[in-house]
Amino acid sequence: MTALEQEEGMAAAELGPLPAAAVPVLAKALERATARAFQLANQAGQQARTNRWALSMSGIGGCKREAAYRLAGVPPTDVELSDAEEARQAMIGTWIHSGLLPQFENVLAHADIELPVELEVEVPLPDGGTRRLVVPGTADCYSHVMGGGVLDLKTVNAYRIGQIDHDGVKVSHRWQVRGYATALRQLGLPVAWVAWLYVDRSSGEVLVAIEPFGPDEEEETLEYVRRLWEMARAPDYAPRSERGPGLSWVCDGCAWLRQCWGPDARPGDSAALKVHDEPEIAFAARKFKELGDQIGELTKDREKWGAMVGRPEMGAYRDEQGEMIIKYQKDGEEVDKKAAVEQLALLGGEVPMRKRTGNRLVQWGRKEPEG
Ligand code: SF4
Is ligand 1 within 6 A of the CB of residue 52? Predict the structure, then answer.
């Protein structure tokens, strides 16, 4: 019996062709093995990090409360979560980095890759003095061309690339790269620009974003880290930059999940967000209703515009504001639930049912009199 058979509780393989009934069992076992392989790769990467719980350059742009916990040295309450994560997208990103970055040294003239850097920030102490805070990181690529610049490789999905093309670089990515740029300047290297190379994980297509970098951007970066330092005085009150467990994959894998959302917080479960006091419930219900009403109106509008677009030929369509790209996903098949139920009934089978919680209906009630 092989290790996989043993782990999955499978019967030892018989000699001869695989029986059809064993195919789904083997498929499930291989899916689980893949998940475990991602998990182990992530775990190895996490555990290899030195000073794992200190603030690093990638953390500067991440969740403010997490940065505050790191700066304040609050012990993580959920180490196993960050270790247990499969972190598939992040792992694929890491592997693309390790394959692509060394080639940049060959194709970009005068480039250094994977440069370890340290951002030094003078921060105030409660006694009126100051101390030197050091935030370490590794810059993907420093190029000496055009006055010197920092290039950061980001791997994203096609949807995200479209979003960045439309809205510009994500704020979190900007702080991270500005951190590298500031640290490189502190080393005496000239930095006149910062750039992001967004690589579509599925197609390899690339979107390049470039911004100038000068003393103002350097000072803004130092100031931003000082603000995080201020937040670290009361880290449990630092603003949360993520929506919470069950709603944000960052929270679901955060090593401070229970510190942040309370002892009952569980990854993948948004129950920790629940409020209990009457005014808090009323406030949340009002927000829910207001947004629902807006979505209702927006959905009707969207349906109208969707009907107007129809299904024209794939391609780019332009007007005076720019271009819009229209593409189609591959046609596929889906279960015709109604036909399946009818067929099952015809064959005399019992339709499997499960309990359904009644929908929550939030309606406008009486308004409190003003004044
Ligand atoms: S649980 Fe979420 S909101 Fe809280 S510190 Fe972690 S990432 Fe930030």
Answer: no
254 lines ligand 1 (CB under 6 A): yes
**Cross-strand pairs, 174:** none
User: Could you write out the DSSP letters of every residue in 62-102?
Assistant: S-HHHHHHHHHTPPPS-HHHHHH---HHHHHHHHHHHHHHH
Express each pLDDT in 261-273 by its tens digit.
999 999 999 999 9
Q: Which helix (H) or strand (E) holds 159?
A: helix 158-167
> Which helix or strand (DSSP H or E) is residue 225 part of?
helix 215-231
Average pLDDT over residues 19-26: 85
Fold for domain 36-237?
Lambda Exonuclease; Chain A (3.90.320)
Task: Among 70, 231, 260, 270, name the best residue to mutate to test ligand 1's pocket (greatest count of ligand atoms within 8 A of Cβ).
Answer: 260
Residue limits of CATH 3.90.320.10 in the chain: 36-237
User: Which pTM value belongs to this model?
Assistant: 0.80
